[in-house]
Amino acid sequence: GQNIDQPTEMTATEGAIVQINCTYQTSGFNGLFWYQQHAGEAPTFLSYNVLDGLEEKGRFSSFLSRSKGYSYLLLKELQMKDSASYLCAVAHTGGFKTIFGAGTRLFVKA
Amino acid sequence: DTGVSQNPRHKITKRGQNVTFRCDPISEHNRLYWYRQTLGQGPEFLTYFQNEAQLEKSRLLSDRFSAERPKGSFSTLEIQRTEQGDSAMYLCASSSNTGVGYNEQFFGPGTRLTVL
């Protein structure tokens, strides 16, 4: 089977750092995505990890541990516009069928 | 590059009617995906094309759902005999299998279906 777990909601303060965790159980793993989705809009790509380790891209970083089935998205210097849902998604081998988690709604407060 | 486009953006239909949605992917992308998303949930995989070949289809998809990509460019998703449970946002995404960032899926704005 396949399962992706991430917290339903998180709240953080503007300027702070927040870490959104994702655990997954799946077969045929071919990489892990993080997407951002503002209310009423389509998801937009943030990161893709296929190897273990941390990848940094501006204020956003993503970490993957394949042996632990674990990833996190780290957001630094939070801004109000970062209030959105953050979707963890796993790509399968052979066809890139992508399974999404339910998403973590992040609220950034002043 | 005008991005992924979907039409219509909104569709209201009565239960039992058939509906068809269209997706135009980014022109050089050979992979195309259809997802369904309901409120508070992540996108749910429906089907995937590489060029014109439909390579994978979710077991969750009933026989009422069919998708095509006849020339490997645009795709259509048809729902026959719609049910109220089909009400959702239908998202299309495309990606390339070569080049930098080749796994990144670009999403269209979606078609919101309401079945009365």
Write the layout of secondary structure elements.
The complex is a heterodimer of chains A (110) and B (116).
Chain A: E1 3-5, E2 9-13, E3 18-25, E4 29-37, E5 44-49, E6 53-57, E7 60-65, E8 70-75, E9 84-92, E10 98-100, E11 104-109
Chain B: E1 5-7, E2 10-13, E3 19-24, E4 31-37, E5 44-50, E6 53-57, E7 65-68, E8 75-79, E9 88-95, E10 106-107, E11 111-115
Q: Can you give a write-up of this model?
A:
- The complex is a heterodimer of chains A (110) and B (116).
- In chain A, the strands form 2 sheets. In chain A, strands 2, 4, 5, 9, 10 and 11 form a 6-stranded mixed sheet that branches.
- The N and C termini of chain A lie far apart (41 Å).
- Chain A is built from no helices and 11 strands.
- Chain A is globular and about 45 Å long.
- The mean pLDDT of chain A is 93.
- In chain A, strand 4 (29-37) and strand 5 form a beta hairpin.
- Chain A is mainly β and 110 residues long.
- By secondary structure, chain B is mainly beta.
- In chain B, 0% of the residues lie in helices and 48% in strands.
- Chain B has no helices and 11 strands.
- In chain B, the strands form 2 sheets. In chain B, strands 2, 4, 5, 6, 9, 10 and 11 form a 7-stranded mixed sheet that branches.
- In chain B, strand 5 (44-50) and strand 6 (53-57) form a beta hairpin.
- The A-B interface holds A 31, 33, 41-45, 48, 50, 87, 89, 91, 95-103 and B 31, 33, 35, 40-45, 48, 50, 55-56, 91, 95, 101, 103-110.
